[in-house]
User: Fold this.
Amino acid sequence: MEAQEQLKQWISESSRIVFFGGAGMSTESGIPDFRGVDGLYHQQYQYPPETIISHSFYRQNPQEFYRFYKNRMLFPEAEPNRAHLALAKLEAEGKLKAVITQNIDGLHQAAGSKEVLELHGSVHRNYCTRCGKFYSLEDILNMDEPDGIPRCSCGGTIKPDVVLYEESLDQEVLSRSVAYITRADMLIVGGTSLTVYPAAGLIDYYRGKRMVLINKTVTPMDSRADLVISGQLGEVLGDAAGV
Assistant:
């Protein structure tokens, strides 16, 4: 059976599908992949991106952190693509139980997905490090501080609710992700190289016989998958879900 037809059949026969996705999910919406050839890690900057988006750098040099963050990590004009819409449709039909994502852009929610577990946080949530007041992405973009550092009405610095290097993943999000994957009767993994840990280690909790890998390039987990599809996520998932 052709891979795309196999995917459709498995989706029709499954009722506890979980999707685990990475940066490739968002590249089709115009958001560059951190590690892609044209991504952040290949662009010239005063410091390496890994350094700039670390917790210690944020604390020591918030002005440079925010200059990079606003220029290179915020894409407020990005729109959900067919892959996002396909997952939202599968959830609405009762087939998909959760989306587990390494992305921070909020596009799954924008497409209509309800149960989205964000392993690395979200640019749409920002909090004052002094008083805890919430600020939206729009608030951050509209702030015009002379030094570029968003500040709360109390005077405290505002930090995005994004997991930086040197920071731990949220344990509640991790445990919920493990629970969903453990109970899944089908696991679709898409748009991720499966090389970033601890997130990539989550798929080890899947014990079923329907693990599907959809990616444009090979991954270290291809040999473990029950079905591997090489292609664009939007096209593959869009066709499978009929969007």
